[in-house]
Amino acid sequence: REQLAMFFLLPMTKTMIIQPKECGPHLRQTIENKLHREVQGTMGVNFCHIVAVKNIDKIGKGKIQDETGCASFTIKYTAFVFRPIKNQVVDTIVNGITGDGIFCQIGPAEILVGKESVPEEFTFDEPTKTFSSHNGYRIQKGDILRVKIEGISPSGIGMFATATIKDDFLGAIGMDGKWI
Amino acid sequence: KFPEGYFLLLMDLPDARIPGSVDEHLPTASSLLNCEVAMYMDRLAAGEEKFPESFGSLLEYVRKTNKFKSQSAVDEALNIVDASGLPHFARASLVNLMPETVEEARALIPDLDSLPDDDLSHILTNLKNTQNFVTN
């Protein structure tokens, strides 16, 4: 069975290195701030994009490194993560259209609906940079597009995915909220 | 505020690629609804903490695609799907996608087989009413 949602809470562990000059009063706050800065907006385990640190569950005892004098702490925390899944149906936002297809985005995930994955009744219209059908419907930048993800791979801090709108009940929801 | 008990159990992945089926490496999980995420991220954004650029683009996405615009509506939607007995991920999909008909729901969300058409139709109607009429 496939998971069909994009957002999760995920237990994670990270080893933080604290410089000697950072040790002192408010050490816990220092560690928390540093954890937020280092992990938020990055790609975590299982290629989940870490949106935010929800809470810190445990800060282990610090260990002094002989060579540097730095202290290392093992931190267990709960991360709020984003990760779309293959075969998942999601709503995306169209942010570009070319003859090659429809480029969409969900935060750090870039999604391409290739022209071969667009229903045949829609063709690319160069002057307006839209996909339009013979009966006047258009898919344009800014539309909400309901797609089915066919393939996905990590790309930097985000992901790149390919998707289709050829299946039933997929396609564009115009700016007025109505199906196109 | 997220309900207690949401968690994710990970297994080590020998392959660097994201596998096709989440069940291969995420045997137990609870999903978060986009409307919950929108409320949560709005609260984070209103605070003093600075977030990276990816946070802003994701926030823009959940705000634009959020189907329920108030905490009351989110709470009511959660109550409706929680009472359905469906798996977490199917509940999330019902609320995230808001299918108009039973046929559409079954086409988009594979795990609705256990739910009779009448029950599913009732859930969809209640969700739609919540979306339209619960605004405060």
What does this molecule look like?
The complex is a heterodimer of chains A (180) and B (136). Chain A has 180 residues and is mainly beta. Helix content of chain A is 7%, strand content 51%. Chain A folds into two domains: 76 residues, 2-Layer Sandwich (Dna Ligase, domain 1); 85 residues, OB fold (Dihydrolipoamide Acetyltransferase, E2P), CATH 2.40.50.140. In chain A, the strands form three sheets. In chain A, strands 5-6-7-12-11 form a five-stranded mixed barrel. Chain A is elongated. Chain B is mainly alpha-helical and 136 residues long. Chain B folds into two domains: 40 residues, no CATH class; 63 residues. In chain B, 53% of the residues lie in helices and 1% in strands. Classes of the chains: A mainly beta (180), B mainly alpha (136).
What's a concise summary of this model?
The complex is a heterodimer of chains A (180) and B (136). Chain A has one helix at 27-39; strands at 7-18, 49-59, 63-64, 71-82, 89-98, 101-106, 109-114, 122-125, 130-133, 138-139, 144-155, 158-164, 171-173.
